Structure formats: structure tokens, C-alpha cells
# Entry
Amino acid sequence: MQYGYKLSAEGFGPQELVRQARLAEESGFDFVEISDHYHPWLDSQGHSPFAWTVLGAIAATTDSLGLATGVTCPTLRYHPAIIAQAAATLSLVSDGRFTLGVGSGERLNEHVVGSGFPAVAERQAMLHEALEIIRLLWSGGYHSYRGRYLRLEDARVFDLPEELPVIAVAAGGPDAARLAAELGDGLFGNEAKPSILKAYRTAGGDGPRYGEVGLAWAPDEESAVRAAHESSRWSLTGWKVMSELPNPANFEAASALIREEDVAAKLPCGPDAAKHLEAIGEYERVGYDHVVLANSGPDVDGFMDFFARELKPALSG
# Structure
């Protein structure tokens, strides 16, 4: 088992994210995963730096910490040729510590380039083509590609690592889990659904399984709930809403009726290690072997200390 820390690029500026990554390494986390957004979910979060620049800075200032995107959409805002190059470079400068997490994206981030935001079936087909393009470019030499949605013309990635990055494909259902098994090296999920892991394994998937668990730590439960409600209530709207709304203002409206008690019922909140360990255990029991802790609490440094003192020893035992 490996345990990671979620760097919320919507909630913090780039220098602070680099600092948090260094602190995560010192606190005993195995890796960090960063969200790759153009906009925050809510205006109150107030940030959204370029994730790839942040990852490069983290690679230069850490020693053994694994790095991952959680997740990048390689079809609309980025062309897969750019992601193939970026991921290869990041793998080189991090000495092989990088995992490329990919998914079909959210309108919140992808609509900004003016190419529209297709329906989910089309987005998954585009992701399929994008993964084929990335694999082609990582095989070395010049390549062209003509798919239904994506094109590549006479392109080559010159700087390739000897060992290519793991590609972990985000899956919220069986179709995406099968794609992860077919063209990915691993799976990325944010729900403890046995059906997703089963579909992945049935399709032949046997790589690393990244699962993201939400929680909120604070010295008292009330502060944790209040902070989680302020920054993360959007996450209770569900994927069909989260993937389709275009701007933070829409998420403010969609989450306006979500109460603090709703957040408390969904996320483990407060200082009780047993509650957090139970949530982490759900992901382990369904088959995830890389569990990412996404903390919505108000005190990053306090959470890191809590992880080092209480969670890590219990998880390692």
C-alpha cells in the first residue's frame, strides 16, 4: 500500500503547493497528486495555477516523493501530443517518479479554449484516441494519426525516459474501467465501488489502483465541518453536475442548498483518527493499493502532523 496527499490547486497558490509537497514528503507520504484545473470549483477557493509548472518545481525540490496528475484531460484544453511531451519530460526531471493520471475532463476547465464540450460517450471516445496517440509518441520516432476526433501530423517526442510513466485512467463506471485496462497501466477512482475494480480486473487490468478519499481534519469537528463546507461542498453535487457546469458561479448556485450537516454526513470530519482510518479502509477493502487523502480541513500543517503521528503508524501496522 502507498498513501498520497492531494494537492488542491484550486485552493492554494503555486509556492504554497510546492511547500505542501515538501512537507508531505517529510511527513511520510509516498506521493502527491495534483488537480489539473483552469478554474477553481468555487470563487472562494481563489486559485488555479498551472499544474505542470508546479509539478516541475516539486520534482526539483523533493527527493523520493512520487508525483501524479489527478487528473489531466488530454483531449480538449490540451492536445495529447503536448501531454505526451510534458509527461515524458516530467518523468525525466523527477527520475521516474511521475504517474500520468488522465480522464475525460470537466466543462469547468475544458470549455475555455472554445472547442465545446461533447457528451460523455464522445469524450470517452476522444480519450481512447488520445491514449493511442500518447502510446504512439512514446514508442519513439515520427508518427501521424488520423482518428475520428483527433489528429497527429509527423510528430516525435525527442526526450523519452528509459522507463515510461505509468498511465492511470480515471473511471467512474465499467466502460472507463475497461479503457483503463486496455490502454492504461492503472486505474484512478474517487469512489469505493467494487464494481469499478471488478470491471477493471475482468478486462485484464492488473496495474496500480489509485483511489481518492475525501476527509477533513481539524482539532475539533465543528471547525473541520465548517471548512469542508466552505471549500468542498461542490463535491456533493455528483459527477453529472460536476462534469457539466462551466464556471465557479454555477457551482456556487448548484451547491447553495448543501448544508454543513450534509457535508458532515458525507466526509469524516474532525480529530478522530478512527473515522479517517475507516474511510481509508473502505478503499483498501475494495482493492485500491494507492490511496490519496484529500483533506478539506483548515490547517494543512496540522493535518500533516496528524498523519505522521496517528494515521501513518496505524496504516503501516
